[in-house]
Amino acid sequence: MHFSNEKPGCCHPGFSSIHGGDFMDIKNVLVGISGSIGAVEIQNYLAALRSTWGASVHVIMTESAASMLQSKTVNYFIDGNVFLKSTDSTDQFKIPHIHLTTWADLMVIIPASANIIGKVANGIADDLLSTAAMAAKCPVVFCPNMNEHMLNRPAMQRNMHQLKEDGYLIIDPGEEEAIQLSTGQKVQGAMPGFSQFIPRLEETLRGQGLYV
């Protein structure tokens, strides 16, 4: 997979200054898992990243995500480490929010809850995931996953608009329809199904002139 940085104004502000040349190979992906119910299916998305792109993957989980899904389960589906807090340092990543985002060619936050979207949109960095998203110099893609009524609230729409204004990318959930786990009803506002995740991710990147 390759990125083009021909449109430096339409992606994360640090992208063009960090990754020179016309194209960039994606080898390293940092995945952020926030506390949306979609986290319970994350293994399928991690498997898609690794099998389709052959990417090396490290993961950051929020405290809320870790309450739904054990980190050791996530570890089984990646070749890297799972980080839960800023003190989870390793020899390679002594300061996780800096060293992980320097290592990454792409950061994907999936599922992206209303909470993590609101934090980053408003400059709040109070845990490892929000801090990493704000420190990243690579493209950062949010995959919102929430109740459709929450998604359509003015505050959420403002936050998503602000993320785009700040150079973050969003896989628009507006056309995605899924079964809401809490009610069993078909709803919109869901992240792509795992079979559509990579195509939608590539489409989002291509739409900003980043994917060739």
Description:
Pfam families: Flavoprotein. This is Flavoprotein domain-containing protein. One of its GO terms (molecular function) is phosphopantothenoylcysteine decarboxylase activity. This protein is α/β, with parallel strands linked by helices and 212 residues long. The protein has a single domain (25-207), classed as Flavin prenyltransferase-like (Rossmann fold), CATH 3.40.50.1950. Helices cover 38% and strands 19% of the residues. The protein has helices at residues 15-18, 42-53, 63-68, 71-75, 96-103, 114-121, 128-135, 148-151, 154-165, 194-207; strands spanning 2-4, 23-25, 28-33, 56-61, 82-83, 106-112, 140-144, 169-170, 177-179, 186-188. The strands form three sheets. Strands 5-4-3-6-7-8 form a six-stranded parallel β-sheet, with helices on both faces. A hairpin with a 6-residue loop joins β9 and β10. The chain is globular. The relative contact order is 0.18. Mean pLDDT is 84; it is low at 1-24.
